[in-house]
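The instructor's notes for this session suggest beginning with a concrete chain rather than abstract definitions. Hand out the sequence below and ask the class to guess, before any prediction is shown, which regions might be ordered.
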Amino acid sequence: MAERAVRQKPRGYGTGEYEEKRSRFIGELFPVADEDEAKAQIAAVRKKYPDARHHCWAWILPDGAFRWSDDGEPGGTAGAPMLEILRGADVYGALCVVTRYFGGTLLGSGGLVRAYSKAASLALADAGTEPDPEKARLCLTCRWETIDRVHRLIREFGGVLVESDYESDPDGAVLTAELLADRTEAFTARFTDVTGGRGTWRPPA
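After discussion, reveal the predicted structure:
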């Protein structure tokens, strides 16, 4: 059985420029956490290069959601090839924007695909990538007297408290925590201990 590729995330911002027949393609790669952040970065790039003809983009968010835009280029010649660069590298939590300054010569579909792919590749290479460990979420139910201990346990395991519900259970709280997937077994064993066996856990609905 082939080994599953480890998903990657950008190390940081990256940029790269490619030129073909006097058209400039400026690629930029941004780490992004959600759609709002991605849209804000796209708006910032448009403001940065207001006189450019096209600002094409593609993103894959940490949860796997993806979108792309050709921004006026012929359909399928810009955003989709850029998305394939991110997919090919198994990168998540990334936005790539390629800004084009038209050089006066039409490049044709093949030339556009090549140019946008190259600019995206250069930006991704400049940003660099690192392993993005798989995470898991757990819905934890605990009684009032153990809430502080559960909070400490989440921090001890390097987890993040995503959501707290203090109303649906009259005897305690329902907490949603996110932590590294490979630590969930050890975490749930400790959770059972700190709650005296009265706490419950499950994946979020």
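Then share the key points. The longest strand covers residues 23-31. The chain has five helices and eleven strands.
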